[in-house]
Amino acid sequence: MSTQHSRSAARLMMAPAVIVLLAWMLVPLTMTLWFSFKNYLPLRGGDLGWTGFDNYARFVTSSAFWPSVYATLVIVGGVLVITIFFGVLLALLLDQPFWGQGVVRILVIAPFFVMPTVSALVWKNMFMDPVNGLFAHLWRFFGAEPVSWLSEAPLFSIILIVSWQWLPFATLILLTATQSLDSEQLEAAEMDGAPPLKRFWHIILPHLSRAITVVLLIQTIFLLAIFAEIFVTTQGSFGTRTLTYLIYQRVLESQNVGLGSAGGVYAIILANIVAIFLMRIVGKNLDT
Predict the structure, then answer these.
(1) What mean pLDDT is reported for the chain?
(2) Which tens digit of pLDDT belongs to each residue from 111-120?
(3) pLDDT band of 1, cuts 50, 70, 90
(4) Fewest beta carbons within 10 Å, which of 122, 145, 209, 214?
(5) 28-75 confidence digits (pLDDT tens)
(6) pTM to 2 decimals?
(7) Dist CA 179 CA 184 (whole Å)
(8) Distance between CA atoms of 141 and 228, rounded to whole angstroms?
C-alpha cells in the first residue's frame, strides 16, 4: 500500500514537468502541421486559405530540395567520420600518462564550449580568409597560391568547422570508455605477441563500439539541424544550403510560412528516418 501511495505521489509531482515538456514539443509541432496545409504569407496578405498538400508538392519538387538533402547528409556524414576517427585517436593518446595530462585534456575539450557563431567567425576570418588568414600565409610560405576555402571547397570547409566544434564531445565520451578498458586483457594479448594493430582491432575497438554508437546517435541528432555555421560563413551559397537553411530561407527570407512549415515536416521525417536507422545500430551494439 505504501509503495502504491509513493508511486502515485511521484506521478503527481512529475505531472507538471511532463505536461510542460509535452506542450513544449507538441504545440510547435501542431502549429507546423497546421501552417503546412495553409497559404500563409505574413507580409503579403496573411492567411490566404487552405491549400492542402500543395505546399508539400511545391517544396519537394523545387530545384533546391534534393541538393539541400544531399548537402545535409554530406555534412553530417563527413563530420561523423572525422570526429569518430580523431576522437578515438585522441582518446587513446589522452589515456596515456604524460606530464600536464589534465591541462591537455581541458584544452582538448574547450572548443565544445565555444558558441557555433563564434567558432565559425574565427575559422572564417582567422584561418580561411584567402588574404589574411593563417592558411593563406602557410600556403604563401610554401610557395603555393592561397585557397579561397569557402568558395572553392565550401562543403569541406563547413565540415572542418563543425568537426572542430564536435570533436571534443566525441573525445570526452570515448575517453571515458577507454578508461574502463581492462588493462589485464591488453597485457595478456601483448604477452601473447599480439601486435598493437591487432590489439586495437580485436580488443580496444569492440570495447569502444557502444561509446561510438552513442556519439554517432547524439551528434547526428544535432548535426541534422546545423544552421549557425552556414549562416555565418557561406549563407547557403556554393552548394552548402542544407535542409534547415532552405527552410529558413522559405520562412524568413521569402515570408512563406506555409511552404517553410512543409519543409519542416520533411525535416522531421528525414530526422526520424536517420534516427530509426541509427537506433537499430545502437540496439545491436548494446545487445552484444
Answers:
(1) 83
(2) 888 888 888 9
(3) very low
(4) 145
(5) 888 888 888 888 777 666 667 788 788 888 888 888 889 999 999 999
(6) 0.83
(7) 13
(8) 32
Check pLDDT > 60 for residue 181. Answer: yes
Q: Which residue from 226, 281, 192 is spatially nearest to 76, judged by alpha carbons?
A: 226
Tell me the residue length of the chain.
288
CATH topology for 65-240 is: MetI-like fold (1.10.3720)
Cβ partners under 8 Å of residue 212, min gap 6: 84, 88, 174, 285
Find all residues with CB under 8 Å of 213, minimum gap 6, and list them.
278, 281, 282, 285, 286
Helix (H) or strand (E) holding 152: helix 149-152
Helix axes 65-94, 154-179, angle to 10 degrees: 40
CB 69 within 8 A of CB 270: yes
Strands (E), 1-158: 38-41, 46-50
Query: Domain segments of the chain: what residues?
Result: 65-240
Query: What 3-state class would DSSP assign to 249?
Result: helix
Strand locations in 130-226 (E): none
CA distances (Å), origin 165, targets 22, 57, 149, 196, 215:
30, 36, 18, 30, 14
Q: How confident is the model at residue 288, as a pLDDT?
A: 54
* Nine-digit cell string for 1: 500500500
What residues contact 15, with CB distance under 8 A and at least 6 apart? none
The C-alpha atoms of residue 140 and residue 129 are separated, in whole angstroms, by: 13
Extract the runs of DSSP E, i.e. beta strands, from the chain. Answer: 38-41, 46-50
Tell me how far apart the alpha carbons of residues 194 and 204 are, in angstroms, rounded to a whole number: 13
Higher pLDDT, 221 or 1: 221
